[in-house]
Amino acid sequence: MPWLKRYGQFTVLELKTASQKKLITEIVKIAHISDLHISGRQDRRQLSNLDRLFAHFNIAGFDHLVISGDLSNSASPEDWRLVREKLESHGLYHWDKTTVIAGNHDLINLEEELRFYNALNPLPMLRKKSFDRKMAEFCAYFQELITGEERGDNAFPFVKIINYPSVKIAFVALNSVYPWYPADNPLGARGVINPGQLRALSCDSVLAPLRACFVIGLCHHAYRVYGTDSLIDQAFDWTMELKNREEFLVLLQAMQAKLVLHGHFHRFQSYMVSGITFINGGSFRYTPQRYSELLVDGQESCNQKFVMLA
After folding, report:
1. How many domains does the structure of the chain reveal?
2. What is the CATH number of the domain that holds 105?
3. What Rg value do the Cα atoms of the chain yield, rounded?
4. Gap between the Cα atoms of 136 and 163, Å rounded
5. Tens digits of per-residue pLDDT, 227-274?
6. How far apart are CA 149 and CA 75, in angstroms?
């Protein structure tokens, strides 16, 4: 069981790996995928592709897998169940093996929100309560990947610290999805990391243990989408943006984060902001044979590349 400590409403867990057979210089291998957009059991080709990719991760000896949101295409718990079943069948459904976060398609059913009776709902608090229930449902379903326990109600943000023989890695997971609103979030794709999460992770009692770690931030939304002078691209940016990205950047700097893994904007890309490398996991839905590989060594340096299966 991982060592667990609670800070208010979120959890920091640390696991000391039992095996000491690995050399202190051994590389830690992390796989990152995003935006699966599974659409039920009839989505057989994608589920087969997921089997193939998970089998490859085991054969290639990956130490950890990150899925940065949008497991479902329509906020369906049935799609979460399918992903969980695939993880379980490949021995990946364990706290120290996989980290999963939510995307906007996991928490917002846009088709339902745009129905007449919802679109004209004058009470946004009712919508927020519905969104919070969906978030709680997602976290309860994947609780074992958050706390190492089968049941519980811990949610975002959460911190995993895994003490590999060569390096101690901290995965800091935040929720960047917020409810659909007809004026401010008409496509349900804009993101916000709420102030409560930022405050919780900014405490000295949280930041102190992270100073001894290689810190990897996780969220669904991209820090950067297009960022051009084109009016069309700017309009697209607005519908997809992480609204408070500068506040998020301040937190990342306080945590001394080296990397941020995200998805949402369906591009396989790596870019740097203020010395922090952001890696977009692209879209498994559209390119199921491609993923991001990260190799972290004992000197806390990281090599990243996008890998294409043969």
Report:
1. 1
2. 3.60.21.10
3. 19
4. 28
5. 777 878 788 888 899 999 999 999 999 999 999 999 999 999 999 999
6. 24
